[in-house]
């Protein structure tokens, strides 16, 4: 009997060791502690932060950044700059305008946008439609005030280096919390948007309140627009295009 | 002593149960057995197949399919049709041609393309650049012969419903096995391409052997083109665009 229990204990402990090793292996493969910090808010509160501007989508981010860096921008271009929500829109088609350039990259943050801003503003494009910040909140655990600080650096560089460019600051969109698996609240998004609107006024850039147009019940992203609580389907992109069309046209 | 071992056994078994529950929860969350079949070749050999055409990228696939279904195609358009490798290319920019429409969807298969073909061919576009099949091999565990059978259905529908459309059948690209986490071999890709070339001849559509231009050592995808062994960076897209440019121009 004692022998049997000891054997069972041995097996059970081995199985646990196997499970733990598997877990550690998966986490290491995805980027170790810095990856974990993007998934576990507690770690971020303990001061462990992701070292990457865009911790999630590693190969995709690198590939797309490298592709975009080789594609020229010119002074007649209208740039759509942001994260996945911008990236996933076929803007030139949605707005029937071949001058439009999609410069969204899935998983990007204000830090990532600041980092790749030079390629975009050096050719002094006509307009920039900017929507960025939800991944700062969700993936990097930054506060709205911190995020707006990086927005301010982005706008300062644009104003200084390309004063003719008109920047349309689009509000961050709401999420649908029960569908979305990330770490961000609609109340944080609301705070970010209020501060973004003040920042836009400060720079005399137009602020576009898209947020209000995508709300459903309980001040959440309307479920008709999304399958995962944050990204958008075709109806949402049609609506968005309609809302900004007057600003895209000269 | 006996008491201690029994307590330890109890704890260890509870931990076992916890880990197993966690694993089951994660798998169920991602789509259950059908998801597992996309990751474990053995299950596919046992006849458990994914019920989805595109088992991986659920919310993204739905969102993009819905967006594309609302964007019109016309007879002057040049369609890029395929999976992530097509989806991730900014083709209108790469080829400096506003008639180009990107109809790639990340994670798509020949089955998915067949399913959404009507929207694309009903308006009888000028040209279609097709690259599809690697996810059939990798995610659905289909054989090259099976995949080419679905290719044949795609080409038959195009030929019947839009005989003026010229279809450029692009070879599937090689992978870099030590960087790629999916289940596909370069030898299977090679077999698929040989059969695709025969199919192209059968239909008198041009076959474009991109595969040969992306090979590095050991007949693998050249590591200079990729961070994850299957998707492409900017240098690769520049090269691809250069190779097909003569076919895109009228």
Automatic annotation (TrEMBL), chains A, B:
Residues 80-239 form the SGNH hydrolase-type esterase domain. Keywords: Membrane, Transmembrane, Transmembrane helix. The chain crosses the membrane at residues 6-28. Pfam families: Lipase_GDSL_2 (PF13472). One of its GO terms (molecular function) is phosphatidylcholine lysophospholipase activity. It comes from the Bacteria. This is G-D-S-L family lipolytic protein. It comes from Stenomitos frigidus ULC18.
